[in-house]
Each structure stands twice: as C-alpha cells, then as structure tokens.
Amino acid sequence: MQSSLLSLPQQHGPQVQYAPEPPPGASYPSSSVELGDLKRILVRRRFLILATAALLTLAALLYGLFTPALYSSVAEIIVDPQDLQVVTNDVNPSRVPPDGGITMVESQVAVVQSSGVLLRAIAATNLTEDPEFNGQGGLLSRLLGGVLGSESTETDKTGETDKTGTTLDALRRRLAVKRADKVLVLDVIVTAKSADKAAKLANAIAQAYLADQAAARAKMATDASDSITARLEEQRKRVQRAENAVEAYKSANNMVMAAGNLVSDQELTEINTQLAAAQSRTATLKAQVDQLRRSGGAPDATSEAMRSAVISSLRAQEATLVDQVSQLGTELGPRHPSMMAAQQQLRDTRALIARELGRIGAAAETDYERALANQQALEAKVAGMKSKSLDTDQASVKLRELQRDLEAVRSVYATYLQRAQETREQVNVDSTNARIISDAMPALKKSWPPLLLLVFGAFFGGLGLGTGMALIAEYSSPTVLSSGQMQSAIDAPVVGVLPAKSARRRWWPFGGAAAQAGQRMDAVAGLALRRLFSSSRRPPDWPLVPSILLTSAPEDAAQRGRVARLLANAAAARGSRVLFIDTNAGKGQKEPQPGLLDVLRGEYAFEALSQYVPGSNVAVLGKGRPKAAFSEAQGVYYTQHMLAQASRNFELVIVDGGALADNLNASPLVAMVDEIVLVATLNATPMRDVTAASQAISVMGRLPTGALLVDEAA
C-alpha cells in the first residue's frame, strides 16, 4: 500500500519557492522604539524601574537621617564701581566702566575667596583650633594628633602649617560667594554645623574683605609716595644744574638780566618808545610851522592863535574899542578928543595883537627845531644800540634754549613735589568703595540635608534612572514592540493583534466554551482569517484544503497554542469544519497515540486518527508516534495527499507547528500549507527569536506569509 501511495502523481502540488539561506553571521533586526511603545517597555520592566527608585529613595532617606545638619548664613556686601575720590589726582581714579561696573564687581567674587582674605578671617576667628575645620574632629584624627604630639618642635611647626592649610581648604569648601544678575551686591554664604558659627564666619570674611581692600589701597598709595619721593632729590638736582647752566652762560656772554629779560633789550625797547614819541612831536610841530608859514599875512587865523588866551583877550578889547569908536564918531565927530583917544587905543590894541601873533610863530619855529634835534639824537642812539644788539642775538638763542630747559625741569619738579604730598595724605584716608549692607544672622532652619527634597529627588531620579536602564536593557536585547517593527522584521503583514487578558485561565476546549474568550478576541481572530485568505494566491481549482500553519519561538508556545485554538474556534463558530493538527500533543506520554507522524509515514489515513470534539465542528489530530523517521519527499507526498483528502470533509486546516527550529518533522507541512503565520508576544518576544524562527522557515524553503501578535497589556 505504501508503494502505491508513493507513486501517486503530484501534479497538483504547490510550487514551492525556496528562500535563500541567510549567512551564518546574520544579525536580527535592530529595535526601533516608537513613542507609543514606551508604555510597553516600561510596563514590562516595571520591577527594574521601581526597584531602582526604591533603592535610591532608601539611600537618600538614610543619608538625610544620619548626616549632621548644616546651617548657612549670608552677609551682603555692596561694591560701588565709583570710588571715593579724596584728591583730584587719586591713586585709584574714580571711573565707571562702560558695563556699569559688572565686570569689576564680578572680579571681586574671586577676591573674597582669595587666600589673603580667608587667612585674615581665620586669624580673626581662631578657626585653626576648631575641630570642624582643622581636620581633627574625628576619632582617627585625634589618635593621630596624640601620636604626633610627642614629636619635635619642628614637627609641631610643620603640623601648625598643615593645620592652617587644612582649615583654609575646609573653609573654601564651606564658602560660596554669589552675585545676582544685574546687581552690585555680593552674597557671602558660609555653611557650618552651628548657626552661630556660620554667621560669625560670614561676618568675619566680610570684614576681612573690607580690611584687605583698605590695606591694598593704602599699600598702593604708600608705594606710589615712596617712588615719587625717591625721584624728588634727582629732580631737584636737575633743576639746580639747569639754573647753573643759565647763569654761567649769561656771565660768559656778559648778558645782564632784569625782570627775566636782557637789560640791553629793555633799553632798546625804551629808546624805541622815546623815538616814536619824538617823531610824533616833531611831525606835529612841523605841521604847525608849515601852517604858520602858509598863513602869510593873516597869522591870526591859525589854530595856535585861536587857542591863545592873550589873543582872545586882545580880540575882545579890539571889538570893544571898534564899537566905541563907531559910537563916538556918530556922536562927536572925527576930531573930537575922545574920538581921537579911542582911535589911538584901537591902534595900540591891534599892535599888541600883531606882536603876540609874531611871538606865537617864533615859539612854534623854536619848538620844531628843538623837537627835530631831539629826534635826530634818539635816532642816532637807536642805531648804535641796534648794532650792539645784533652782536648778542646768537648768544640769546642759546640762552633761550637753556631757559626753556630750566622751565621744563622746574615744572616737572613742582609736579613731583605736589604729587608726593598728595599720595602721602592718601595713605591715611580709606577710599574703599565697598561696605557691608547686611550682617549675617544665625539661621533658624538647617540648609542641609533637605530630607524631603532629597527623598523626592531620589525617588523621581530613581524613576528616571530605572527608565533609562529599562531602555538600555531593551536596546541591548530588543523585543517585538509594534506591528510595524514585526512587519519590517519578517517582511510580511501583521494580520491581527490579540488581547491576552484571559491568558491566565485554563485553555477552554473546542466548542461553546470558546465564548468565554470574549467577543473582542473572537472578532480579531475572524478578521485575521479573512485577511489571510483575502490575500492568498490559491488558484480557484486548487484541490487542497485551505491550511494555516502557526509557529513561534519556544518561549511563546503557550501563546501560539492559544492563538491556534482561537482561530479554530473562530472558524468553527462561523459554521466551518476545521481540522486542528497539534504537533505538540502527546509530549511526555509513555505510550503516545497514533497521529500526524504516522500519517506522514503512510501507516494510517488521517480520517482514522482524527476525532471530532463533542459539540463542535473541530476535529483534532495529535502529533503521533516518533518511532521511525521518514524522508522529506515521503512526508511532502503524504502531506499533499492528506490535504487533498481533507478537502472533502473540512473547509480549513489549522496546524500548531510548534517551534520550527526544534521541530524538523514539520517541514513537509511547511512546504504544503497555504499560510505560515508567525506568533509573537508584544514587548516579550526577543527579536533574535523572531529572526531565528524566520530563518528556520527560510531553511525549509518558505517565507512567513503573516504574523499574529499577542498583546499582554490589552
């Protein structure tokens, strides 16, 4: 019988296309996480996230409970960018920078934290003896201090230096100097285990900063004063040398000075002035003489005659006499003695006028001649002094050069002398541009540790860290996160996503109990069947019954079996007769019953082994007895024969093919079924298992035609 079955024709067998086997080193597709998939990752790895958050929260709580409390106090210092100007030429000039002093104030932050300021504060508060800051507060430090206390004096000195350095470092760690934005105020913040100590240290540092600034400015003024004073003696000697050079040159060239000028120059200037006056007088007298000469017979018309008081008096008498003569001539006649006497008086008056006019003319001539002689004498003297002055011009050029040098040296010496006096006065004047506007007060609440803030921060930080660790774990071992990712991995469509809310229940038998799965899962399963066969390329006259093989990774065996039964129930609920082949049935039985393997070996007909489940349209065929092997060609032939025979009694065959990588006996089924569906669990099935299953299907000569996903979160 077996030989006759083997000789049956296979013209109706499916045209199997073998996919190329992937290279041995091929890697599974990388995970591409979408925003919607984060929920699945976080839910799946929630224990890691919550454990990380709980661990960090516990650590923060223990730290907050066992850490000694710290208190912070703040002293505020305002720094004015415009200095106090004591004198005009101050050593520290008062200028406001273009940025309003922000840069200058920002540099003072570093000054407050400098070693000089902090050492002043340490010395003022005797902080080197405080165990909190000198590094001797612990038991180990006290023991070491007791051992080192028996050493030599030199060691004690070194230890004291180390103690100062340790205290300085500790104070720096407890100190914070801040400046708010657009504010010229420095906040000196000190943290200590005691509120009073923190306030005391903050005030000490603020005072030390002011003292350091005042000392720095006084030192600058002292250094400037000493430097200028050291140059005064040299400047004085330079002035003396310049004065001696001027006097020696004047003595060598017989140059007498008076009121800063040469006597010869002064004399020449005075004589020139006299000459100019003489020339002016001569010109004036010459004009008078010329006028008198031009008047001829009427000298009384000159301006000198008009200005003469004598002439004016005589003219008045003349006018009186003329009037008298005219009156007497009318009354008495020309020969009357009175008339004749009046005429004689008139003649005498006119003679006097003529003599006075002559005297005025002679006086003008005499004055002119005298002025002309004086002018000529002055001109001769000026000419002589000019010739003498030309001889001293070259010597005067050199003298003026020496005098200019002397004035320059005197000016520099005077400036140095004034500046030295000013800087000496600035040493004793505090021009510091900073002041304390708020003294530090003891804090009422501790600043560290903020227990509530630490706990909340640790909790949410732990959630964030746990989330990051979950994402890293997901990236290092990616799982199936979405339908798109699954479709990209197997290059086949995802025909449905089934919820898994009833996954913890015992599998229901075939038949009416399937209603317990819920209408939603039944609807999704029915829709998946429609999608599978709507895209199928089965010829219309294909003699084999429609068939679906489901496979998965070994870890998804339970989900695969559930999905296979769900599909069978969904088809049976719609009136289809279903043959359900379970390649996993019978595992662990000592005496397995005949089943699929027996059919593939040709020992039984499947009609004799399949049994209908009571109350349903589903017939079940188990795995069978793996007592003997069979060839692949033999298995393919009997698989084709079984599917052809099943078409007379069934409308659908569903095969639970198990994990194909571990079930090579299913290869004949892989070659003959219509659809090969890969089952995976969202956010649980590793991508490497999906790749391994897809590669196993490829090795058997087929490719996955679809996928069904199980969503445990639905």
From TrEMBL:
Main location: membrane
Annotated stretches, region: Disordered: 1-31
UniProt keyword Transferase, yes or no: no
Tyrosine-protein kinase G-rich domain sequence ranges: 394-472
Domain Polysaccharide chain length determinant N-terminal: 33-123
Keywords, comma-separated and alphabetical: Cell membrane, Coiled coil, Membrane, Transmembrane, Transmembrane helix
Bilayer topology: Multi-pass membrane protein
Signal peptide from the UniProt entry: none
Domain of life: Bacteria
Organism lineage: Bacteria, Pseudomonadati, Pseudomonadota, Alphaproteobacteria, Hyphomicrobiales
Alphabetized InterPro entries for the sequence: Bact_polysacc_biosynth/exp, GNVR, LPS_length_determ_N, P-loop_NTPase
Biased composition (Polar residues): 1-14
TM stretches of this protein: 47-66
Cellular localisation: Cell membrane
Name under which the protein is recorded: Wzz/FepE/Etk N-terminal domain-containing protein
Coiled-coil segments on the chain, per record: 225-295, 368-419
Protein's UniProt keywords contain Cell division: no
